[in-house]
Amino acid sequence: MNVSQSLGRLTPSPPATTGKVLKSTWPPRTLKGMNNESLTLPVPAGLAESAALLGSATSHLTAEQARDFVIEQVSGVDVEGKNVCIIIPDGTRSGPHGLMIQAAYDAIAERAGSITILIALGTHAAMEEPAVAKLLDVPPGRIGERFPKAQVLNHDWQNPEAIATLGTVPAAEIERLTRGLLTDRDMAVQINKIVAEADINLVVGPVFPHEVVGFSGGNKYFFPGCSVHDVIDISHWVGALITASDIIGTLGITPVRQLIDTASDMIPGEKLAITYVATSAKGGGSNLHSVAFGTTRAAWAANAQIASRTHIKWMDRPYPRIVSKVPEMYEDLWTGAKGVYKMEPVCADGGEIIVYAPHITEISEMHPGIGKIGYHCIDYFTKQWDKFKDHPWGEIAHSTHVRGLGTYDPETGEEKLRINITLASQVPPEVCAAYNLGYADPDTLDWAAFEADPDTLVVEHAGEILHRLESQH
């Protein structure tokens, strides 16, 4: 495989098809904009400040402080006799989830008419009872005892009967929101019926830098968390066109967040959120820095600002080799690829990211279609759009997020990639090769050599802290 030591960015060609991609310059119109045009809108003045906030980037909150804050804030919400849906993360996010979810539940249990705790899987695999119990911080088999007035459910994204259609965002609006990155494509807005029918939706979840939307949290728990393919495919594809390396960790209302905010506006019920920022503690657990409560937009904005300080590590130079030690909460490469996204900005041209994940046995259980396309740069797909346009766009987007920047020449069939990605897991070498990934035996990695090499960066618990170059600050 040819690896470029110094790549310019590609110029995608516009396919003349429905859902066509507009031609853009390379570098693309980045989030800082070109010709005084910005793809990302500023957070509206006063939005973050309208949320109630406890803590800061330098705070270390106790469980008692956080619980008291959540109960005080949620107790002020009129839930009397109402149908409340508490939307929570799945097991691929770390943080004091049980503490927050229990506090939110306790604040409404005696007043709400009905309560559903819905796990926002997106298109991840459903969680089994022991994993859900761990997420909720209760002993196995005791979920019903701790949450007697609630039903706890996985988002049933594969069941059409569980999904409601709220409406359509027309192509002209998609073009406006994406500043012309995507045209001629309507977006069907579909979501879990439980969310659609709730009087109040209360999102409870953390905020992190994110490779598709900039910073996760808030309305992202609706789309893609409780949605299905159309919004997921379109939003992730727009993120891919901007590129993960540009959009990840971007404060402000990115084009992708504009899409999901627009879709979320169609949800009939009240939309509130408890957001929080926590970093992983040595020896397990987490350090809780802040908790916010307000509308989904306000609570997200308040903690996105804080996460930009706690979850971005600024490095003084790029590294030729990075070893991302991916935790077991990522069960396959589809989720464990966050160990690539968060490190790619500080990998040197021609360098290598080794994803160390000895527990991973497959690329993706829920998305076998990724095996039909493998992992490639955005140019590989946009310059062969007729070949790939009917493949799920969310899978194509994931492919480009993992593989990073590069170029593709359709005349020669040569793809030049900025960096190498090597998977050190239980996935065999022939499968890695078929997916356009390198392979390393996780049992034979020379950790002493890695630690002694000043050009190797070893990252523990990779996947949540974004690494960027100080020159980009």
TrEMBL record:
Gene Ontology molecular function: any one: lactate racemase activity
Domain named LarA-like N-terminal: residues: 80-238
Stretch forming the signal peptide: none
Annotated spans, Disordered: 1-37
Top-level taxonomic group: Bacteria
InterPro entries on file: LarA-like (IPR048068), LarA-like_C (IPR043166), LarA-like_N (IPR018657)
Transmembrane segments: none
Gene3D superfamilies assigned: 3.40.50.11440, 3.90.226.30
Protein name: LarA-like N-terminal domain-containing protein
Organism listed in the record: Corynebacterium efficiens (strain DSM 44549 / YS-314 / AJ 12310 / JCM 11189 / NBRC 100395)
